[in-house]
Design the sequence.
């Protein structure tokens, strides 16, 4: 699996419907809990008008878009950390994800059963987060037991691990996620924390699932407003979609989608916001290689230098890196050709210390 976002939430909040729309995979969606038993994985292209522009310009024989894997994880319930509702298996799937999209039901519908018999997005969020914290607490307690046993033999590293785990267990026991725990800057302590692969250390964002009639006035929707206030308080992203509408859009022929979007008052599918938010949450950027044979979007971490970016294409490119010829995708599309960009003085030669920027179109020169 590549870079992945786990879709979590209570049963019947719209996770599988959202997943179907994201990936065009038909994970079973039904009005009862646990209709998704094994995690479904969809490889989803990242919507990018810059990439589309390069494809239109070059008409290449091959195109490769940037992608994110979305994992549909079955609905969690109270007690999931102790195995309720197949909880332990589902929680292990979340542990493998790089980020978490927390789908929250923000609509009333008496025909769709709520597992707790009421619609309360904040209470739903608390239920899920409590189970994730409890699962992490279980992980930390196991690591603490191991460290305490090893520390008796005068193992200095395990003594540090015991100290980290004791402090972290107290933090989690207060219901706080691991992402807010300050382990300090020591390399050993950082490694001890990293190696536990805690669920609540992962970046996360909220996806408010609403009905079509709510889309016209999301700013004043009371249920959405509760989630928005929580997201702002925590400084995390939030996006709104109507999963049912998105799934319907994806079933339409491409040429009919624009008219349908206009009919429901949308400029673009809400899915684009979900995908792009997941991508940004992982601190990722895109650079391009482009020409008649292929237009390729390459995913790298923000802050990556040119030789390491070249290594994404082939290890020889990094090993024998000489320089990078760089232009912005905006200049390329505006001026119409690489030659025109050069003549306008907007092609740059960059060396080993150059930090690749989002939207760069790059030719790497190398020698091995």
Sequence:
């Amino acid at each position: 699996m590549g870079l992945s976002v786990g879709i979590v939430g209570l049963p019947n909040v719209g996770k599988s419907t959202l997943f179907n729309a994201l990936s065009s995979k038909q994970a079973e969606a039904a009005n009862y809990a646990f209709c998704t038993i094994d995690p479904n994985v969809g490889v989803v292209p990242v919507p990018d008008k810059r990439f589309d522009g390069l494809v239109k310009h070059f008409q290449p024989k091959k195109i490769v878009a940037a992608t994110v894997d979305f994992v549909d994880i079955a609905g969690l319930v109270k007690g999931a950390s102790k195995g309720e509702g197949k909880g332990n298996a589902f929680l292990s799937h979340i542990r493998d994800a790089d980020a978490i999209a927390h789908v929250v039901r923000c609509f009333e519908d008496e025909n769709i059963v709520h597992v707790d018999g009421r619609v309360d997005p904040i209470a739903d969020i608390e239920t899920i987060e409590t189970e994730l914290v409890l699962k992490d607490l279980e992980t930390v307690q196991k690591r603490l037991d191991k460290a305490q046993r090893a520390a008796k033999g005068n193992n200095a590293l395990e003594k540090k691990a015991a100290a980290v785990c004791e402090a972290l267990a107290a933090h989690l026991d207060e219901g706080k996620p691991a992402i807010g725990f300050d382990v300090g800057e020591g390399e050993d302590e950082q490694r001890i924390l990293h190696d536990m692969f805690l669920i609540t250390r992962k970046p996360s964002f909220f996806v408010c699932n609403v009905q079509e009639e709510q889309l016209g006035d999301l700013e004043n929707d009371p249920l959405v407003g509760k989630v928005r206030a929580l997201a702002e308080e925590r400084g995390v992203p939030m996006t709104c979609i109507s999963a049912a509408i998105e799934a319907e859009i994806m079933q339409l022929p491409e040429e009919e989608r624009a008219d349908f979007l206009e009919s429901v008052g949308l400029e673009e599918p809400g899915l684009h916001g979900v995908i792009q938010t997941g991508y940004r949450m992982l601190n990722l950027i895109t650079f391009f290689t482009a020409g008649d044979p292929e237009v390729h979007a390459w995913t790298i971490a923000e802050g990556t230098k040119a030789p390491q970016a070249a290594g994404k294409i082939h290890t020889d490119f990094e090993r024998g890196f000489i320089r990078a010829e760089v232009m912005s995708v905006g200049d390329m599309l505006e001026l119409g050709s690489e030659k025109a960009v050069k003549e306008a003085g907007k092609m740059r030669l960059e060396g080993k210390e150059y930090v690749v920027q989002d939207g760069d179109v790059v030719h790497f020169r190398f020698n091995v």
Summary: The CA atoms of residues 168 and 181 lie 7 Å apart. The radius of gyration is 23 Å.
